[in-house]
């Protein structure tokens, strides 16, 4: 799980990353960490409930991986799902893109 291009671009250069410990229980829409940039700090929220199974330790040394490769090396955490039915409540990619475009209007 990570952040989208839209989010990392809005933040600017990420300079620190605070992530949960392995085993942390995540609640849907609950805060689980933060990203800090030269512009601002931003809470990280989980779109789904579950448990953290792995964290991207490379971000401690190089938080800018979030900017360089948010869909690749800049991932944040891996987790299991405790409530798979929550997947049905997520926006489709098309609906999400429409929402992002509406923010700029």
Describe the structure.
The chain is an alpha+beta fold and 105 residues long. It contains four helices and six strands. The chain has helices at 5-11, 58-61, 65-68, 93-103; strands at residues 14-18, 25-26, 31-37, 41-45, 50-55, 77-81. The strands form two sheets. The chain has a three-stranded antiparallel sheet with strand order 1-3-4. A three-stranded antiparallel sheet has the order 2-5-6, with no helix packed on it. It is globular, with a radius of gyration of 14 Å. The protein starts with a helix and ends with a helix. The model has no long low-confidence stretch (mean pLDDT 93).
Rg on CA atoms, Å = 14 Å
Helicity, as a percent range: 10-25%
Strand content: 25-35%
N-to-C SSE string, H for helix and E for strand: HEEEEEHHEH
Strand order of the largest sheet: 1-3-4
Number of strands: 6
Major sheet characteristics: 3 strands, antiparallel
Low-confidence stretches: none
- Overall geometric form: globular
Mean pLDDT: 93
Number of helices, where a helix is a run of at least 4 consecutive DSSP H or I residues: 4
Which class of secondary structure composition applies to the elements?
alpha+beta
Termini gap:
28 Å
Quick synopsis:
The chain is α+β, with helices and mostly antiparallel strands. Helix content is 25%, strand content 29%.
Q: Layout of SSEs?
A:
Blueprint: H1 5-11, E1 14-18, E2 25-26, E3 31-37, E4 41-45, E5 50-55, H2 58-61, H3 65-68, E6 77-81, H4 93-103
Could you list some keywords that capture this structure?
three-stranded antiparallel beta sheet; 4 helices; 105 residues; globular; single chain
């Amino acid at each position: 799980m990570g952040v989208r291009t839209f989010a990392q671009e809005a933040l600017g250069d990420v300079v620190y990353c605070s992530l949960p410990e392995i085993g942390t229980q995540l609640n849907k829409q609950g805060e689980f960490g933060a990203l800090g940039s030269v512009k601002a700090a931003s809470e990280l929220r989980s779109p789904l409930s579950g448990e953290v199974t792995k964290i991207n330790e490379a971000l401690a040394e190089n938080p800018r991986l979030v900017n360089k490769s948010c869909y690749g090396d800049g991932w944040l955490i891996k987790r299991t799902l405790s409530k798979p039915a929550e997947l049905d409540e997520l926006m489709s990619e098309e609906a999400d893109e429409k929402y992002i475009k509406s923010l700029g209007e």
